[in-house]
Amino acid sequence: MKKLIVPALMAMALVSCRGVESSSTPDYWFDRPAAAWEESIPLGNGRMGMMPWGGVESERIVLNEISLWSGNCWDSDNPDALGHLSEIRRLLFAGREAEAQRLMYGTFTCLGEGSEGPDYGCYQNFGNLWLDFTGVGSTDTVTENYRRELDLDRAVSCTTFTRNGIDFTREYFT
Known about the structure:
Blueprint: E1 28-30, E2 43-44, E3 48-52, E4 58-65, H1 82-93, H2 97-107, E5 127-132, E6 143-151, E7 156-163, E8 166-172
Antiparallel strand pairs: 1-6, 2-3, 3-4, 4-5, 6-7, 7-8
Helix pairs in contact: 1-2
């Protein structure tokens, strides 16, 4: 696998940030780096996204941008959808989730082929940003106090660990 390093995308990730303290408890935390894409932590702002894996010697950050789409353009507007929103909300607040879901599926779908069409497509990966860190010790150096976490209140992911008596902190946001 080739490594893609794009300096301009460094603005998407703040790495080796010191002195940033969270006043809240993280919502999710892990005691090891991600071993697969599904284990990485999703961060995004609705247009750009990234998924840091929390590596120690090297970091992989999967990048995405909203305009990277493999499918065709479709008219996904349905002007009738808004007229059903209050009824869907009423059903949800009444605890009638199944009815609300049926109404939503029947009225909040696009008028064109949309996701049912053969060429609908999907988001494409923008790239992988690989960061190789020197100074954290070799692969046979013991890593202690490893923690990778997601703080939803601050929309920040943080990886911390200790190696050779040195505390390392990496913080990520989009």
